[in-house]
Amino acid sequence: MTIRATALTICLLLVSVSAGGIATATDASTGPADRLGATAPAQSDCSFPVSTTDATGTEVTIDSKPERIVVLQPSDAQLVWEIGAQDRVVGMPKTQYTSYLDDRSGKTNVKNEDLSVNTEQVVGLQPDVVLASNITDPATVRELRRAGLTVYHFEQVESLDEIAGNLETVGELVGSCSAGTERANEFRLQVETVEHAAEQADQRPTVLYYFFGMTAGSETHIDDVVETAGGNNVATEVGITGYGQLSPEVAVDQNPEWLVYPGHASLPEANAYNETTAMQEGQIVELNPDYISQPGPRVTVPLTRLAKQWHPNELAAANESVTMANVTTPNETGTTQTSSSGPGFGAGVALTALLAVALLARRS
């Protein structure tokens, strides 16, 4: 069994851990959509057929605008909702991890009780296209394709840029090109605003992202959130790639000034963590677990939250000065592709990593 398959199996057996410990105010976004203005590039309606290659190397072709869409994972649903195409969704994961989305009524739940994909349910919905985030088991994708369905399997998301690209990709696949482009550019503007604020700040705090004894290192969208918001991710500093274990001893040695964690997790219980500046000064930020864990456009909410926490004056100034004129957008060369691969784990922490990543992945 592959690491991915094992992680998925473990994922289906785990339950969420409720939030605990010190918390700050609820996530809030500054919403710079009004700064898009006339600089946001216009795009004509999608033209079909459309063809693009997905993470499996398969060329996915859609002949006409899909009227029946199925999304297999929460992050897939978030992308579709953000471009306003939810009215054409006939199947989705109707779980606690999509409860923040409106208009879920009338959609068929495509998840089993153990959170695996109910392939028979998906096939029975007769969708025109199925969207499957990278956490979806490749065997599920193959099974759906053998049943004659058109499935697009996304690459692993490792950066904020890739989230913007996925918005454009989904827009093209479901026939909402203008909405996909506009939402992607709004997302890029939010990211650029935060990045500009961080660049203007005098200092960058050291930050530890912590969940279930694990942390997020390089090549993860969470690392990009921390770094873009103006923090230095201690997990990346010590060479962790993907999602891995960080021992309390290393954490103390790195002495993070801030500790950030998702609300479904809890604060570190090891006494060693109490010696860090973050714990001693109470510099702890609890983030919306769905927004930070799911690699979707709502990740700008925790992104902005962190920037406001660390660089409030610079963020306020950036909100007044940064516009789409400051944002670099990709050339009109068709569907945005990503080329990333999944996170790796050392043999010594493989099982712990799989358990924690499974908890993270079930939200994705």
TrEMBL record:
Transmembrane segments: none annotated. The keyword Transmembrane does not apply. One of its GO terms (cellular component) is plasma membrane. Keywords: Signal. InterPro entries: ABC_Transporter_SBP (IPR050902), ABC_transptr_periplasmic_BD (IPR002491), Peripla_PGF_1 (IPR026469), PGF_CTERM (IPR026371). It comes from Halorientalis brevis. This is PGF-CTERM-anchored ABC transporter substrate-binding protein. It comes from the Archaea. SUPFAM superfamilies: Helical backbone' metal receptor.
